[in-house]
Amino acid sequence: MIKYVLKENKNKKSLAFGKWYAFPVADETIDLSDLAKHMEEHNTGFSEAMCLGMMTAMVKCIKEQLLAGKNVKIDNLAIFSVGIRNKEGAKTEAEFNVAGNISGLKLRARATGTLSNANLYNQANVRKVSATVGSTSTGDNKPSGGGSTPSTGGSTPSTGGSTPSGGDTTGGTNPPGGEGTDAE
What we know:
By secondary structure, this protein is of the alpha+beta class. The protein has helices at 32-41, 48-67, 98-101, 117-123; strands at residues 2-8, 20-25, 72-74, 78-86, 102-111, 126-128.
């Protein structure tokens, strides 16, 4: 179940000022060790230690391939790639230099296959939680299906302060309802 809280956009410069948006709330974050234990419990035929070893090696190899300039696709999960964070642009190609025009790199993850944004939305149960995480409002909300895919909350303008798992507090660049695809 995907839990969410509602926040009002208080950015007076935003076209979405005064509107309310859902932001996801995660109960916990599991690590590779927890995932390996979960996989063993699903009768994968491999022990927890074997699952952990394979996933640890996979993470190392994905990082290695990304740093070599390649994209890595894990079917039905995501395509991982490296994005560039640019500073102000150079006036000419000759004036461009890495130190002066690139501020950093970012990891990008785009959903693929059966974990596409549309499939995720159609398969998820969504429930509002109160400001105190753990207590839920009455009634589950199941997406109606059809129409456009909703925003993941990743780039919806926020109220400032901390944003529950997902979303950003920078004011965002995508309009409400747009799809955020960068994992930052």
